[in-house]
Amino acid sequence: MLPARAALEPATSHIRPILFLLLIASTMPSAIAQSADANPYFARKNTFSFFGAYSNDSSHILLGVAENRKLVDFGAGYSRRLFLNQIVNWQYSFEILPVALNSDPVQVDTSTLTYVFTNGMPTFTFKHVFGTPTGPACVVTPSTTQTYSIYQLPSDTLIGTETVVEVYTCTRRWVIGEAISPIGFQWNFMPRHKLQPIVSGHGGYMYSTQPIPTSDAGSFNFTFDVGAGFELFQSKRRSIRAEYRYHHISNHSTAQANPGIDNGVFQLTWSFGR
Q1: Residue 246: which CATH number?
Q2: pLDDT at 237 over 60
Q3: Threshold 0.90, pTM exceeds
Q4: Smallest Cα–Cα separation from 125: which of 165, 87, 178, 90?
């Protein structure tokens, strides 16, 4: 009996390590899943986003003086996590705006000239319409009517009259442009919670197809914004962000005029990543 028992012991000693390794391998996926689920942070490492922004008016908030300007923006963004702890999630932020619309008030001057002759010539009328982007605001002056006598030279004979009617109105023009903000940061506070307060800031430039906000300003402008809001995480990969930003546009005196535009912008962003 003793020789037979001694022969079985080596075989059993080889089987036990194999069973132990199989047990570890079978429990490893569940352990990894539990570790992933145990991550307490709603903070992606890489985030991609799409957003829309709108401002109904501009005023002298801080630097700009051009009033009654509207903004409509559609763009995309990317952010990369730089630092994370239980208080703050600090991210680098990049934004690009393929569609950046600016609306300026335009003062329209409609001049109607009517000529009435006394020497039998037929009466005729000319109409001229001029429109130019206004300065800080579109201020319409009262309409005017003036009548002038027409004389024939060199005899100074009165041959008729010229009546000029000037009518001033305000309308709007929309100018399309593109913008990019390569320098930006975002701070999400309380990253363990689904609803997180945020603060952000960006700097870049904008190019428009026409000078804005006035005809003697430039088509190339610098931009920067600072804002605050909230980000609501639907899951650890997807979220919705709503924020209010102070947005400034200025050509930094690189054109004849530099009124500058200050807007309060509301922005809604949908984000995803991991």
Answers
A1: 2.40.160.20
A2: yes
A3: no
A4: 165
